[in-house]
Structures are given as C-alpha cells and as structure tokens.
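Crash report, auto-generated. Payload:
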Amino acid sequence: MIQMPMIQTPIIQTPMIQLNRVSRSFGDLLAVDQFSIGIPRGEIFGLLGPNGAGKSTLISLISGQLLPTSGSVLVNGLPPVSIAAKRQMGIAPQSLAVYEELSARDNLEFFGRLYGLNGAGLKSSCVKVLEFVGLSDRAADRVEHYSGGMKRRLNLAIALLHEPQVLLLDEPTVGVDPQSRNRLFESILALKAQGKTIVYTTHYMEEAEKLCDRVAIVEQGKLLALDSVDRLIRQHGGESLLSWSSAGVEQSIKTADPLSEIQRLLATGCDMSELSLARPNLEQVFLNLTGRHLRD
Amino acid sequence: MGVLMAMVVKDLKLLFRDKVTLFFIFGFPLLFAAFFGSIFSSGSSGSGMSVAVADLDQTTTSQLFVQSMDELDELRVERVEEAQARELTRKGKKTAYIILPKGFGQAYGSLFSGTPPEVIIGVDPSRKAEAGMLQGVMMKLGVKRFEQAFSNTDAMMDQLDMSLAALQDNPDMPADWKNLLNDYLPQMKQLVEQDGITSANDPGEPNDESTTDTSEGIGDALMPLKLLQEDVLVEKDGPTNAYSITMPQGMFWAIMGVVMGFGVALVQEKAQGTMTRLVVAPISRLQILGGKALGCFLALVLVLGVFFVLARVVFGVPIDYPQKVLFAVLSVATLFVGIMMFLAAIGKTERGMASVGWAVMMVFAMFGGGMIPLFAMPAWMISISNFSPVKWAILMFEGATWREFSYAEMLIPCSLMLVLGVVLFLAGSRLLRLES
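Recovered output after restart:
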C-alpha cells in the first residue's frame, strides 16, 4: 500500500463548487471518502480515475442526485438540492440521457420546459445549442437514427439549453468516434471561454491533459492528488525517458532534466540520431501514486 | 402546471410511438372483443329491431298489416301468441311486443268514422329511442290505410256512405260542422263515382261488421293509428348484446397495455439516464411523479373513451347514460394509475416491472372477469373476484351500460377505486427510488 501525503488544496475565494470532507457510502461500500475540493469559477476541473473510482458518485453528489453521508456540498454557495442551485447546473450524464423515440428538437423543447423556458425563448435556445454542437440539420430526426457521436453531442446540447454556470460532464466521450470527439473538445473549450465552470470526469488521461486546468486523481473514492497537469507530472510523474541511436545502437536514459542531459551528451561527442523524449504523463502519475494503471 | 403538461405530452408521445405498446393498447383488445363478441352473439343476423307480434284480430286486414311490418327493414318480426309476446319482451329476448287487438281490421278500414285502429306497443320505458322508432314505423304503416282506401272506388264509396249515416246519428256534433260535412261528403261521393279510382292493391275486405263506436267523432278516425304504449319491466339476466360483455373485457386489456407501457417507461427512465435529468432539473419529486401519473391517467381516459365510442357506434352496445360511463372511467383510471406506480416501485428494473406487472395483472384478469365473464363465473370464483381490481373495473363498465346500475349502486365501488388508487400511488411514490 502506497502511503499518500496529505493533499494541500489551495484556498480559493468563493469557489463555484465546494466539497468539504464529503463521504458517501452505499451499505458497506464507501464510494467517496472524505473528499474536499474547491473549484473556482471558469475552471475546467478534471476528475481522473479508473472505472469504479467514485467519479460518477462525485458528480451525483455535486448535482444533488445523492446526499452525502457526511460533509457538505455547495454550488455557488447553495446546497445543490435547492431550486436556485439546480437552475445554475447542467449535466451531461455518462449514460445517454435522451429520449431516442423523439427528435432532437422534441428532446430539447421538453427539457427546456423543465427549466422554465417556453415560447420564442425556448425556440431560440434550441436553435442556438443545436448550432453550437453542430446538429442543426438533423434537429427533426429521431435520435434513434443518430450515430453515437451525435447522441453525445445532443447529450451536451441538452445540458447547455438553459445557459447554466456549472456544467457536469460525466465521461462525455465514451463510445464516440474521433471526429465527434474533437468536436466535443472544441465545444468544451469554447464553453470555458464563455466563463463556465466545468467538472469533467474521464478515465482517458489524454483528455484530462488536453482540456483540464486542474486534475484530481481519484481512486477508491479518495483524492490522491490535485494540481495542474504540469505540476502533477513534475511531482509524481517521475523522470522523462530520453532515447537515441548512436552508431546503430539504441540507447536510453531516464532523467529529470532532459535538456541538461542532452547538452551533456553532446558535449561528450556522442553521435545522437533519432533522438526522442518521452515525458511522463498522467498515466505514469497514476501508476506512481497507486501502483496500478488507469485502465486496470 | 407547464412542467406537468410538458411531461404529460412527452409521455403520451413516447407511448403512442411505441408500435408494440400500441398493439397491446388498441389492436389486441379490439381483436379480443370483436372475436369473442361475434362468437357469443345470439344468432341475431342482420339489422333491425326484434319484435314479437300477436294478432288477436286474425282478419285479412290484420294479417296483411303484420306482413307489411315483416317487410320493413327496421323490424324483425316473430309472430307469437299474446302471452308469449309479453313474456319474450319481459325477459329481454325481444325489444318490444306489438299486439293488434280484436277490431283492428274493421277500424283499419274506417276512414271517416269510428275510432282509428288501435295498436298496443309494449316496451321498456328506458328504451326511449326504440319506443320512438317503433311509433314512427307504426304510424308510417298506418298512413298506408289512407293510400289503400283512396286507391279503391268501392271501398271509398262504402266509407262515405257509412260516414254520412254516422253523421246523421251523431247528436253531439256542432250544427255548422254537420252542415259542412252534409255538403262536403255527398259531393265527394259524387266525385269518386264520376272519376273512379283504379285499385292497384287489394284494399282489404269490405266493412261488413257492426258499426264501430263513433263516440270519438269523425276527426279521430282520420288518425293513421291509435298507439297504446304499455311499459314493460324487463328482467335482465344478461345483456342483449354479446359485445356488452366482451368490450369491457377488451377495455381491461387496453388498460393493461397502458399500465405496463407507463410502468416500464418509468423504470426505463432510470436505466437510460433521463431520470437523472429529471432529478437534477429544478422540479420537485412530486412534479416528476405527478407528471407520470397524470400522463397515465389521461392515456387511460383517452383509450377508454375511444373504446366506449367504438362499443356504441360499431358494436351497438347500449350506452344510455354517458355520465355514468364517465364516472366509471375516471374511477377506474385513478385505480390503475395507483397500480402502475406501485408495480413500478416493486419492479425496480425493466425486467422486474415486466415480470411482476404481467404476473400480477394476469392473476387479476383471470379472477376478475378479464377472461371468464363475470356473470358466467361459479360462486366460489365470484367470491375471489371481489379482491381483483379488474372485477370492479369491468363491473362498473357493465354497470354503466347494460346492467344499468343507479348512481347509488356505483357510488361505493367507484369511491373505493378512487381511494385505493390514491393510496397505491402514494405508497408507490414513497417506495420508488428515482436515483439510479
């Protein structure tokens, strides 16, 4: 068992989302264990961990679907079960939460009405989000005829309909083709530019690296590490692997300072060709923190 | 209210877009009702009101009159003795009886004197439409006696002679009337004599019986017929129409289709994630479950309404009191909304809901009249059926139609259904977990 140091989470003034020593158990299973985080406004906050780590449970706690067994959750200073907090949140659940027998427009109009939108306002919101996710030309088609990527985009569109300040995206790219995936990434970055606070759960480290301002490494309901991607890698990723070919012989070396190491090797007159540098990544961070791979 | 209506509209759209569910709501129940209704129909082929006719006069005229009734599309005539005619109608085997009393033939031939021919019609007083129709049909036949009389010179001459004689013997007629008719009738006799009228049909035998009672005056003789209606208290052993039994049974299967459709959909929402959106949205748990309940309720009322219209229009099921039907429909719908919510709470998953739901509803159906009609059940089964909500639903549908329950008779069962429906809804709501 790897002993983890105490996580020092930075103090953030008036966080948009605050979890304070939150725990949630289901019978004997402790799904979330003393979780404390503060997410400032406008940040894309990643929850990275393998399947069963507790990411979706955290999303459920933040969204108010579940109440914590202990601790507290606040969204913009409000309990998430309050109507005011719910109006500020949009969720794209892991399972595709759409009515497949209805068209995209029918889905949007129904969910929009739950948030108090109606009439011309509802119609214009539907047009806007459909355009945002690139589904305008398929709005009248039944969702059952959509590809997986299109369904995921609609899943996101529904979450955006009422212009929430907080977006909870639970594994939004599962089962999505690369083109739709990139499209989703662009959409998410555009939402960040609009100042939205986004909680993004994933077990794909490349997504977390690409999108997230900060990443929380989660495993078995515990917060293992929390920081920006670069700092996490620097602190827990270990050394980079420098590889090169010299006189036909493959060589490699681990180093914490690859630039200095290259300079040193060149100074010794080493003939370096096919030089490559493999920086540590979040996968390595997770492995070093837990002794397991992300996809185990 | 906007949220509730949005949920209702969405759920109704989903329900009616599911072809399999639609088949079990409309297709199967209608096939069931039509198939078994046609099998158990009492051999009544063709249209027309079934009447028993007793000819007490037994003259050529009366027999021809009965024959003319037989030739009408509106009637299906069975010639029987008087006692049998009354019995058949009392037992509900015939819609009405028609009795031609002694003297009918003579009065039928008297145009300008005596009383109009009497016809006795016996019918259940609640069957106003049928009674009205019979009166119209009889009058139509009665008018023909004028056509027949005016088409035969000899008969016409005899009538006029009789009328003139009766006129002289009538002390009560006002003088100016008597003078007018003393002028008019001889002139008419002369006209008929001169121009003559060729007879196309046999007008019936000449009036050679004793003078009929003229105390009514000449004016009354010009009525086509004198209809005497007798009220018949009909003993109801069962419906007159087999579809009166099979349509309520079919309606139960339609109810089952709606209940299962909504129950499975409710549980499905949890599995497919849409319930997550509903829970996270700024609406209350009561609005979520209330929306589901209201959608199910409206679907039941709509479906049952369609079935009752089809029962009346297509299958001829008598529905004399639509208000009672509405009362029954609203009570039954409330009950089964509660059952739906409770089953969804117990079932928990789609498979669970489907299994538990079908098992429970099939048992209710078996003992509740969904398969064996209520009136055909043995005594021990009737005792058990009291515990089946299906029995009460079918009984109220039958009560609002052929059993003709009063409001007082419907009040307790319908109230119990309303209360039980609310209780089951509340219990199911408490048990149902919306969170996955």
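Post-recovery validation: Chain A has two domains: 17-233, 239-279.
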